[in-house]
Amino acid sequence: MVLGADSAESTGRTLTARDAAMDGALTALYESGGRQPGRGGSGRSAGLGASAPSVARWLGDIRTYFPSSVVQVMQRDAIDRLGLSALLLEPEMLEAVEADVHLVGTLLSLNKVMPETTKETARAVVRKVVEKLESRLTTRTRTALTGALDRSAKVTRPRHHDIDWNRTIRANLKNYLTLPGEDGAAGTGTVVPERLIGYGRAARSVRKDVILCVDQSGSMAASVVYASVFGAVLSSMRALRTRLVVFDTAVVDLTDQLDDPVDVLFGTQLGGGTDINRALAYCQSRITRPADTVVVLISDLYEGGIRDEMLKRVAAMKASGVRFVTLLALSDEGAPAYDRDHAAALAALGAPAFACTPDLFPEVMAAAIEKRPLPVPDREAPA
């Protein structure tokens, strides 16, 4: 199928009614000039206009003609290309859109100017997306982290099925014995396990502290959404004590709202500058058990604060025993734009910075809790 303004002339075939409607929906968004419906010489219906009714009709059309994944891309392009953010402040418009993570980010950026008549509809849209994300991510996250917590709690008198044989063998290599073979020849050897090392079982008490420190500048919208969902999942686990801190040039602790990620999201304010050093200073002041603490900084590292102080804080936290993780993004978008100098400086401190997808995040957290190497994607490692 070939769609476009000159499709009939170039192919010699006329578009059917459905194909013509699809062509019209695409032309309204992507044809330069954005002609208004019903105007212009050719009579083709192009352009979205500036009215809510015409945009609402267009949103209905694209949901009829295209799959959900394409609809989300077209909605995103309409907001970016045609400046339709203001129309999202109308309840009837919100009810017509296909909700996804990027739409949530746009709504959060409009939160401060959103009229009261729209806020409840906006919260319903955000909650719909959050619930879908929770159903996708919760089970995998809880499973991965529960296993990591069990394995990180080493005990010296484990039950047989809890023995960690790799650690036990390494700890008892000095007890290696060579057994005599037939006729006095050297035989096989064995390790005598005088000391057993095994996995503990995560108790009801808190075993690890997790601090999520999230950059809420405008470029980090999707990361803020995912971090809020993961924060709620982590806070529901008894063996973890989770703190969620968001920042731009100011620092806001949203830990008390973690039971509802929608409240967390509406407590953020996307946009503004970035002061990573100030945010890390706050997080550092809340650390009481360094050896049992994981700090996850989620930021593109474009620092507006004091760079050297930021690096000193990271070095000090690591020296005290904190496991420090830097994620350049927490989203499905792949490698983001980020400050390569700062990423390299963190890597030199032993805190590699890399982009992380939501599906990889449970594995990253499990590795951090167990204090083993992080699963850093090679293609994301900063140069």
Your description of this structure?
- By secondary structure, this protein is α/β, with parallel strands linked by helices.
- The protein has helices spanning 7-11, 17-30, 52-65, 68-82, 91-96, 101-109, 116-152, 165-171, 221-235, 261-266, 276-285, 307-319, 340-348, 361-370; strands at 154-155, 176-180, 186-191, 198-199, 208-215, 240-247, 251-253, 293-298, 323-330, 353-356.
- A six-stranded mixed β-sheet has the order 7-6-5-8-9-10.
- Strand 2 and strand 3 (186-191) form a beta hairpin.
- Helix 6 crosses helix 7, helix 7 packs across helix 9 (221-235) and helix 11 (276-285) runs parallel beside helix 12.
- It starts with 6 loop residues before the first helix and ends in a 13-residue tail after the last helix.
Side-by-side strand order of the widest sheet: 7-6-5-8-9-10
Rg over CA atoms, rounded to whole Å, is 27 Å
Number of strands: 10
The general outline is: elongated
- Residue-averaged pLDDT: 80
Spatial gap, N to C terminus: 42 Å
Low-confidence stretches: 32-46
Task: Summarize the amount of helix as a percent range.
Answer: 40-55%
Main structural class? alpha/beta
Helical stretch count?
14
Largest sheet: 6 strands, mixed
Roughly what fraction of the amino acids lie in strands?
A: 5-15%
Q: Spell out the helices and strands N to C.
A: HHHHHHHEHEEEEHEEHHEHEHEH
